[in-house]
Amino acid sequence: MTVEELIVYGKKYLHSIDAKMLLANILEYDTLNLINHLHEEVEESKIEKYKELIQARLNNKPIQYILGTTNFYGLELTINENVLIPRFETEELVENTKKIIEKKFPKKPNLKILDLCCGSGAIGLAIKNLFKPFDVTMSDISKEALKIASLNSKKLGLETKIIESDLFSQIQDKFDVIISNPPYIKEDEKIESIVKENEPPIALYGGKDGLYYYEKILKDISKYLNKNFLIAFEIGYLQKNDIITIINKYLHNVDILVKKDLSEKDRMIFITNR
Description:
Largest sheet: 7 strands, mixed
Low-confidence stretches: none
Shape: elongated
Distance between the termini: 66 Å
Radius of gyration: 21 Å
Helix content: 25-40%
Mean pLDDT: 94
C-alpha cells in the first residue's frame, strides 16, 4: 500500500488528523510532509504497525501515549502512562507565572524554582526554557514519573535538579517560586473515560474533596519559601473559594490572585508576599 492509500484507510476509522499523526510517526516524517510521499510504497511491517496503532486508538488509548510524545509550551516532551498528559490549561499556568515573575522579580535573574508534583517535568522545563539562568528543581513521589522528567530534561538540554519526594519530605532548600499542578479531582468525581482508563490515578485524585494536596502543601510551604515569594497553583475550576480558605488558614499578609483560563473558568491561583 502507498502512503496515500494508508491515509485513506486510517480515515475510515479515525479522525483525519489522528490517522496522519500515527502514520507520520511510523514513517518518521513530519505530518505536513506526508503530502510529498503520497505515492511511496510502505513496507508490510510498517503497515501492520500502523493498523496496530489504529486499533489502540480505537480502544480509547490517548494518541499522546500511543506516539509517546506531546507538545507543551513549544517543547516536545516524552510521555507514557506513568505521567499525566499535559493540558493547555497548564500552559496557561506557565504563561501567567512567567508574567508575574517578570513583574515581581525584575532584577533577580537567577531565581530558585520548585516544580512540586512535576510528573513529566512539563512545568519546570517550560520555565527553565524561558529563564535559562534559573535554578529549577523538579520533585515527585513517583519514581516512574521522575524517570520521564529526567529523560525530558536531558533530551531538551535543560539542566534541572530532580528529587524523589513526597511533597516536601525530601526538600531542603528555600525557593523564590513554588509552582504546582497537584492531583485535584474528587474521589467520586465523574471524568472522561479516556482519562480514567489511561492516566495514572496517583496524579489525578486529590482525596474525597479534591483538596487533600493543597492542604498538605500549604500547611508546610512557608518553611520552603524565601521572604519575597510567588506560589502558583493550577486548580479545579470549582475549587477557588475552598483553596482561598486554606491559603488564609496557613499564610498571612499575602496577596491572592485568581486567574481564569481561556474558557473563562477559574483555573489558577497565585499567592505573593505583601
